[in-house]
Amino acid sequence: MSLKIAGVLVVFALAGAGLALGEEQVSEIRPVTASTAIQDNNDSNTQWVWGEVTNVDVPAKTLTLEYLDYETDQERAVILAVDDSTVYDNVKSLEEIRVKDNLSIDYFSKNGKSVAKSISLEKSEGVPVEDPAILQPEATAAQGDVANAGDMPDTVSQSTPAN
């Protein structure tokens, strides 16, 4: 019986020591705000912003993004630089980004500038305008009588022979 109690005490002592060591490793947790400066390009210092493009300056390799600051509930603008390591999604380069595009951007601060780590163009959920069926509906009807498919009844009635 005393052996079991000694074993339980050892387990609690080890668990307590582990918690005590873990407490020493906890660092101060601070909320990230717009005034928080990010010094290095690493994953722990990456910030995210989503908004609408208001300016693209290809020669300067920058774009301006207007976004809603959720802390102050106000519209803000941020100028983001791109470099050779910037990764693009749904767009090939800065040259393809247009004013009014919606972007999701991961960025970090380097030498006082916000540098885009990855830029993702948000695609609209509608059908692309280049779709020939939208531009020329007659072509769809000529290929197969699909245009008249709406005239068909929803149910097919079955006839039974009369006795």
Blueprint of the fold:
Elements: H1 2-25, E1 47-57, E2 62-69, E3 74-81, E4 87-89, E5 102-110, E6 113-121, H2 132-135, H3 137-143
Parallel strand pairs: 3-6, 4-6
Antiparallel strand pairs: 1-2, 1-5, 2-3, 5-6
Summarize this structure briefly.
The protein is an alpha/beta fold and 163 residues long.
Biggest sheet layout: 5 strands, mixed, barrel
Tell me the number of strands: 6
N-to-C order of helices and strands: HEEEEEEHH
CATH class of the domain at 43-121: Mainly Beta
List keywords for this structure.
OB fold (Dihydrolipoamide Acetyltransferase, E2P), 163 residues, 21% helix
Q: What does this molecule look like?
A:
With 163 residues, this protein is an alpha/beta fold. The chain has a domain of 79 residues: Copper binding periplasmic protein CusF (OB fold (Dihydrolipoamide Acetyltransferase, E2P)), CATH 2.40.50. Helix content is 21%, strand content 29%. It contains 3 helices and 6 strands. A 5-stranded mixed β-barrel has the order 1-2-3-6-5. β5 and β6 form a beta hairpin. The longest helix is centred in the N-terminal third of the chain and has 24 residues.
